[in-house]
């Protein structure tokens, strides 16, 4: 964190200067530290290409620029067995098109990796990793994977075409009720329960990766940062080096949803997704982030070191205590203090919604452990009572 503080401080100082003076300033300030100078220069470059380097990731800018070059002639273009119809959206690493499968006539969402980035092995590997993760998943709240392939050097992923609005758009235009918040959170927890069961961790749960259908059905999208969990439930270390931040842009703009262990670059497991769900519920309830600073570094510091503001202090129409309790449990700094599974979080959300929870499979997390303890205590009590009764009768 000390290294990042240096980068952020010099970056902010350089922004206050005319562009013509920045190079000389960095030469003086960084002395012989070429690595430090390069990091600051990278951030300045990205800043010039966007209104805010935090709000518009560098990778997203590149993908959008490459996609826009082909917007005029996209209709009718063929990618393998698919014919493109129209652009749906441009994300951080790919463009998504409405397309028709010529073999079946079915409409699909076709995700294309930009040809101009084909030489970037990191990004291409991430794109292919998403396809591998999606192959393992089949759930009503996860956009269905159809197939992945390559045609004339163009890598693609064909998926279920999900109609609706992403949650980010919904939050910009609508105020959600408590019931709507719980409906959305429950479905996200259902999706994560299935993904975690299949050893897949999403790592990028946020409103822009959720589609809300007309009937209220939620679909989780974009497993581009997904990573397979080991048998012990732990993923390898998450690359959050300064080089990763500035070169790939994988976390710029989404840091508010990241868990402390993600930011530290340590080992992460399924509980990091639960932290992100907590951030999202907080945002849906109050319209604000639980950890948001005046700068990128300040936001990171708040996530690592500060508790979130109580939702009742942020929003005058205070949420019910059980919903706030769920959020605060998700947002615990230490993973061991959060819900220990998506199933456990799901149970808490259903109870808050007044639903029956018999359908939630037990046996894991604190609820499962609590049931085991109850049964042991009950059985011990019965045996003790029988023993006392036997002693009385035999005496």
Whole-number radius of gyration? Answer: 24 Å
Contiguous helical run count: 15
Q: Please, what is the average pLDDT? A: 79
* Unreliable stretches: 49-59, 236-253, 359-370
**Approximately how much beta-strand content do the residues carry?**
5-15%
User: Which CATH-level-2 architecture of the largest domain?
Assistant: Orthogonal Bundle
Question: What attributes does this structure have?
Answer:
six-stranded antiparallel beta sheet, 3 domains, 13 strands, Phosphorylase Kinase, domain 1, globular, Transferase(Phosphotransferase), domain 1, 395 residues, three-stranded antiparallel beta sheet, alpha+beta
What does this structure look like?
The protein is an alpha+beta fold. It folds into 3 domains: 2-48; 64-160, Phosphorylase Kinase, domain 1 (2-Layer Sandwich), CATH 3.30.200; 165-357, Transferase(Phosphotransferase), domain 1. Helices cover 47% and strands 14% of the residues. It contains 15 helices and 13 strands. A 6-stranded antiparallel sheet has the order 1-2-3-4-6-5. Strand 2 (82-90) and strand 3 form a beta hairpin. The longest helix is centred in the last third of the chain and has 30 residues, at 365-394. The protein is globular and about 100 Å long. Residues 49-59, 236-253 and 359-370 have low confidence and may be disordered.
